[in-house]
Q: What sequence folds into this?
């Protein structure tokens, strides 16, 4: 061991308390000390930050650490100050600092105290910062979270693509890039953009044997999450959601169910975000519910579970986020909830983006869907995505422990291809499902698709089955969705080849992912007990009798999801009944007494122990928010303006209104309906819900009307119908 190696071991023990390096840390540090550019690919928890922290302490001058998030900078600076006991050893330079604080930072740097300066790429571009950075010796540059450079990376930041030109202007020095997730394509993109194709490359294995991976059907996800957390008391966890609204709602639901949780998203003010993050790190709360704004670089070793309420936009993002579990080598459960509806929402969000972004986003999403619906070892699939081979199954994921049912799908795939070819493309998934199952809609009649040879050929299987077949054909690239004409199916070259020369192809049944009934799976890892089928049927009969007496469709009283929940929770008072799904105070008071009387009688006759520990308390819209919405409707304000004023989309506002109406509140939106629809159109939809709809679901109505009306229009007329007939 030479003098330089002795020195790095001495500093490793003195500042960081370790006796030895992890993985390739030592080789990375020696490469940097030799003045070489380095590309470092290490999984979360692999010790990337040490690769630049230790050499920064050794070398003359100040290391510039380019980092994407203010919270990440603060966390890293606090850690370095803790290691060295000298506050001036590390600083950050960003928009949160006052002029006085900026001057203090600059004084420490010019005096030689500061060994690491953290800056955001945006801060690098400011002229005053550029001029200042030219005044002192820079030991090296480190670009953290380097995947942000690539358009194919999961957190693309356009500012990152300017780093090379800025570095050239300030003054060249060795360059290190670090990331926890990069496919071979992203790696090449990073190196090419930073002009470091000849850099020393250090790749660690992506294998994390202590992490358990599972994808669950998104059925009563909130209840499953609450049950899981209550079954694992005191354990620290992160729950990721795609929208800020869902973050707030879910965090509130956890709190009312006696779980110590806080929200975190970019829409919160910086002080609240920072406080919530610190409370999580300091174990004052067990769970943080967050958007992807949370977690980049957060060094909390004992996160025991990472739950994705929504499946992420890319496998890179998913792998990095799950990598925050079990960084200490201990237990780490990674559970994702999946429904194809979430994928379709993400596809819709892409519609207004430039074409190249849509293409990239579409391919990244396709990889995610393929992973979620895979029947093979999840770890092997993840490693393969990052260019690493694993020769055996992990034995520690849901697919290894509970293999899915598979069946020969050659004939069904041929049937779907024949149907799409026959109609010459140009239609969405639901249209083809209607053809296959023999359902006559206005669109089917208009195009005479009920005359096709394949019309009704698949009627012995439910629509759900064909939706699964079509989706797996998308994954296999036999068919694809148009981008310009969003969602329209067309056969690919690979699909035509299969159609001409079919071969064996194994598919999986789709019931796991698009369950029709609102039921929950009972397993070691979560879910509550299945519904009491005898009670459920008794409740349905009672609902039918009441509906007949009141001359209403049965679902107006309580829908199937509400009855399922009653048959799980066994509510015996009106107060307990209002906590069941989609019931609320109003409906419980209006229709509930006969239902709770029946449930009480059923419990007494059968000697049933009520699962009181499984009763999930619900939380509605805040009373102030609800009052404001209803007040604006009473003053006949346009729903579009109400949504804008409350910083939500029209669909989000409609969902809020539906929750009010489900709980028994009556609202009058005739003034708005009359402004967007003719009276005949309103009558058309209204009559459908009163006379023709079996379950009153929006999905059913959308299939019935095809493209005649938008989803928003159908939902609003349904609101009017429920208010007038049920509330």
A:
């Amino acid at each position: 061991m030479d003098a330089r190696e002795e020195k790095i071991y001495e500093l490793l023990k003195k500042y960081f308390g370790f006796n030895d390096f992890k993985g390739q840390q030592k080789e990375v540090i020696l490469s940097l000390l030799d003045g070489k550019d380095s590309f470092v690919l290490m999984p979360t928890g692999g010790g990337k930050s040490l690769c630049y922290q230790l050499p920064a302490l050794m070398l003359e001058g100040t290391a510039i650490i380019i980092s994407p998030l203010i919270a990440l900078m603060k966390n890293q600076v606090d850690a370095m100050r803790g290691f060295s006991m000298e506050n001036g050893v590390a600083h950050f330079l960003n928009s949160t600092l006052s002029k006085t604080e900026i001057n203090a930072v600059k004084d420490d740097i010019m005096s030689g105290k500061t060994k690491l300066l953290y800056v955001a790429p945006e801060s690098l571009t400011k002229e005053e910062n550029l001029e200042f950075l030219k005044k002192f010796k820079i030991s090296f540059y480190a670009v953290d979270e380097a995947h942000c450079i690539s358009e194919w990376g999961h957190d693309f930041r356009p500012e990152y693509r300017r780093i090379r030109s800025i570095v050239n202007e300030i003054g060249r020095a060795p360059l290190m890039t670090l990331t926890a997730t990069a496919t071979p394509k992203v790696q090449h993109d990073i190196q090419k953009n930073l002009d470091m194709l000849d850099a020393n490359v250090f790749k660690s294995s992506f294998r994390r044997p202590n992490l358990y991976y599972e994808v669950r059907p998104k059925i009563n996800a909130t209840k499953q999450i609450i049950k899981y957390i209550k079954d694992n008391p005191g354990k620290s966890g992160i729950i990721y959601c795609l929208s800020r609204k869902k973050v707030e709602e879910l965090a509130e639901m956890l709190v009312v169910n006696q779980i110590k949780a806080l929200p975190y998203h970019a829409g919160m003010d910086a002080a609240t975000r920072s406080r919530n993050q610190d409370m999580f790190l300091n174990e004052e709360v067990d769970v943080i519910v967050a958007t992807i704004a949370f977690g980049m670089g957060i060094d909390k070793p004992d996160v025991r579970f990472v739950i994705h309420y929504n499946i992420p936009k890319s496998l890179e993002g998913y792998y990095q986020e799950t990598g925050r579990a079990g960084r200490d080598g201990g237990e780490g459960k990674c559970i994702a909830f999946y429904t194809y509806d979430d994928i379709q929402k993400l596809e819709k969000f892409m519609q207004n983006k430039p074409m190249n972004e849509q293409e990239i986003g579409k391919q990244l999403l396709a990889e995610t869907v393929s992973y979620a619906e895979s029947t093979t070892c999840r770890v092997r699939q993840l490693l393969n995505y990052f260019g690493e081979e694993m020769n055996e199954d992990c034995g520690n994921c849901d697919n290894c422990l509970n293999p899915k049912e598979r069946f020969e799908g050659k004939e069904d795939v041929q049937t779907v291809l024949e149907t799409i070819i026959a109609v010459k493309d140009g239609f969405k998934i639901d249209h083809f499902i209607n053809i296959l199952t023999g359902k006559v809609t206005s669109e089917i009649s208009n195009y005479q698709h009920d005359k096709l040879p394949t019309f009704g050929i698949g009627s012995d299987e439910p629509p759900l089955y064909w939706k699964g077949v079509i989706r797996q054909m998308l994954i296999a690239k036999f068919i694809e969705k148009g981008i310009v004409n969003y969602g329209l199916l067309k056969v690919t070259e690979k699909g035509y080849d299969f159609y001409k020369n079919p071969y064996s192809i194994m598919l999986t049944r789709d019931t796991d992912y698009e369950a029709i009934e609102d039921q929950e799976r009972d397993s070691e890892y979560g879910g509550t007990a299945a519904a009491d089928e005898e009670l459920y049927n008794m409740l349905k009969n009672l609902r039918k009798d009441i509906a007949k007496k009141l001359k209403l469709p049965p679902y107006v009283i309580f829908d199937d999801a509400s009855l399922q929940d009653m048959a799980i929770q066994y509510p015996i008072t009106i107060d307990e009944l209002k906590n069941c799904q989609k019931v609320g105070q109003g409906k419980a008071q209006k229709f509930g007494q006969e239902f709770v009387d029946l449930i009480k009688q059923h419990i007494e006759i059968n000697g049933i122990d009520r699962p009181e520990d499984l009763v999930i308390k619900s939380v509605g819209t805040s009373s102030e928010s609800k009052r404001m919405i209803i007040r604006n409707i009473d003053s006949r304000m346009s729903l579009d303006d109400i949504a804008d004023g409350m910083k939500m989309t029209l669909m989000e506002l409609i969902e809020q209104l539906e929750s009010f109406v489900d709980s028994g509140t009556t609202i009058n939106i005739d003034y708005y309906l009359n402004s967007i629809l003719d009276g005949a159109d309103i009558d058309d939809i209204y009559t459908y819900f009163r006379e023709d709809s079996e379950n009153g679901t929006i999905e059913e109505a959308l299939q019935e009307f095809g493209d005649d009306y938008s989803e928003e229009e159908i939902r609003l007329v349904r609101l009017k119908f429920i208010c007038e007939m049920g509330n």
Remarks:
- The chain is about 50% helix and 10% strand.
- The first helix runs from residue 3 to 16.
- Residues 301 and 328 are 5 Å apart (CA to CA).
